Amino acid sequence: MRVWTHRVVSVQRELFDMDQVAEGMAYLEDRSIVHRDLAARNILVGDDLVCKVADFGLARIIRDSVYTASRNTKIPVRWTAPEAALHQRFSVKSDVWSFGVLLYEMMSRGKMPYEGTAARLSVRCPSNIYRIMIDCWAIEPSKRPSFHALHSQLDSIYAKIYFKTVEV
């Protein structure tokens, strides 16, 4: 395995990678595991181009759908949902927020959302992907999609792009 590094890749490839991350996070969601540190630095890409979610140092198994951390817990603020940053309340939905930031990082080639301006992307980001990001950043956690829904959406978008570019 090697760490995801800055590389120029197509939107199609980025979607394939993000779909794999969503699938991995859906696996964690099914097991009531909150990662709490989902970011590009914690995605490994194998020689076979399979993406793996890594670094479970902050991960927790949750009960009652929410894990409340102590006030002294250090968290990656730039990727952290408002309820987690303000009240130390982590859930699968706070990981979904982080996934939206990760998706933005991928589509903008390493930029962070809201670097002094509104979260705007270049024309290389399809509008349906941007819509997914916005859904991930819903202020109310219950309004954010599940990782299963994200995987399904990304898989569908990827298939449309893939079959449009591959001659049969």
DSSP summary: helix tally: 5
Low-confidence stretches: none
What's the overall geometry? globular
The CATH class label is Mainly Alpha
Secondary-structure element sequence? EHEEEEEHEHHH
- CATH homologous superfamily (4th level) name: Transferase(Phosphotransferase) domain 1
Question: What's the main sheet like?
Answer: 3 strands, antiparallel
Structural class: mainly alpha
* CATH architecture annotation: Orthogonal Bundle
Query: Mean of residue pLDDT?
Result: 83
CATH level-3 fold name: Transferase(Phosphotransferase), domain 1
Distance between the termini: 32 Å
> How large a portion of the residues is in β-strands, by DSSP E?
5-15%
State the domain count. Answer: 1
Written description of the protein model:
It is found in: Endomembrane system. Its main location: membrane. One of its GO terms (cellular component) is receptor complex. By secondary structure, the chain is mainly α. The chain has a single domain, classed as Transferase(Phosphotransferase), domain 1 (Orthogonal Bundle), CATH 1.10.510. The chain has five helices and seven strands, in the order βαβββββαβααα. It has helices at residues 11-30, 82-87, 92-107, 127-136, 147-165, and strands at 2-3, 33-34, 43-45, 51-53, 60-61, 67-68, 89-90. The strands form three sheets. It has a three-stranded antiparallel beta sheet with strand order 1-3-4. Strands 2-5 form a two-stranded antiparallel ribbon. Helix 1 (11-30) packs antiparallel against helix 3 (92-107) and helix 1 runs antiparallel to helix 5 (147-165). The chain is globular.
